[in-house]
Amino acid sequence: MKRSFLILFFLAVSNLALAQFTITGKVLNAADNKPLENATVFLNKTNYGAKTDQQGNFTISNVPPGHYELVVSMMSFKVYNVALAVKADTKVPTVIMEEKSTSLNEVKITVAKKVESKYMEMFKRELLGTSKFGRQCHILNPKVIQLNFDPKENKLTAYTSDFMVIENKALGYRLKYLLEDFERNEKTELISYVGYVLFETMEGNEQQRQEWNENRLEAYTGSLQHFLRSVLGNNINKEGESGFVVATDTRSPNMSRLADTLIKEKIRLYSGKYSKIDKDSLFFWTSMFQQPRYIEVVDTTKLIAKEIAQLTDQNGLYALRINNDINYIKKWIYIKVPGKKGSISFTCDTCEFKNSLYVTYIKNIPARLGNGYKMPSPRFKESFTPSPELDKMASLISIYDGHVLFDWNGVVVNPMSLKVERYWATQRLGDLLPIDYMPTTESYAK
């Protein structure tokens, strides 16, 4: 399928991408100030890396300009990482590596305690993902994975003692992944993991390389990086084209839904009881649990690029913008609520609300979202609900604190300030591409 907007972006940044620089530096042991040989030095989420020599020196060549995270790793030492902006040949200040100190308790947990295989499968599922690309990933050295399950907290945690090697046969990459921390918590219903990855391109025949290129383009299309690049290329909300639809999503707490802790407590209380009163009570609390946590609407106004991003005073960085001044729920008289027939009347002038960016990728961007533009009333009657096609790859972006900053390459430099939900939140290591990935002109024409 032809993707003309990708070609425009590729041409716009080609001069930047073609420039290549060298990163040099030295790694020392903090204990004796002597050089560390054979330490792995790499740029996180790229295929640019090197090993230190006998003098502790390293050289990483052919690096495109951009904002990176430099990572230094060596067995028995703490991982060193630092943000790095590459605009020319760069010499990194001397890296001082500190040895790890492992407590007796940590040794007991990870060595003496065996973890059931079902938890290993759960770990792999959550880390690699269940997409068609994630299912084709294989961990070649699972012995480096240190797992622990706490039955009291119902929490699975993990880290790796060395690089975990993951072979992604769908995308043609071998990932060396250093997992610092992984947690799957059933109580909070949250999954989090922190790690560093170095890509290696796999060798293959012509047919395999063609399949990998097609799969990589599929993984890239509709991704967060693709979206940020499209914003900078002013290639969003283009009627009749394949691309991104971007609008504003407003959420307000559903005041008729009680706290999760109370709902779950009541469900446990009435489960397994068979009197009519108990069954009615169980039905009530189960229905309460199924209610949405938020009253939510997607505004019908399609945003333009300059409303979403602006150039900052930091060289080469852009700030993501979300307008939190307008409560779009007030635009509608009736609100459609998922799981309920019809719609409800919702008015709450004092309720808190939060706006996010509603972002989705579709093949044919419509001229308008919903039918709201045809109504003469200053308040439209019934809220707009995205179609299944719109919602298929829909994500929500919100900002925790301050600003979300990203560079020309679509790389977010302060990811802890960014929250993504829905489609992008389901992406795992199996869908990951190097941050300097650029679709080839051969891929565009397909």
Automatic annotation (TrEMBL):
The keyword Signal applies. It holds the Pfam family CarbopepD_reg_2. Keywords: Signal. InterPro entries: CarboxyPept-like_regulatory. Residues 1-19 form the signal peptide. This is Carboxypeptidase-like regulatory domain-containing protein. It comes from Pedobacter albus. The lineage of its organism: Bacteria, Pseudomonadati, Bacteroidota, Sphingobacteriia, Sphingobacteriales.
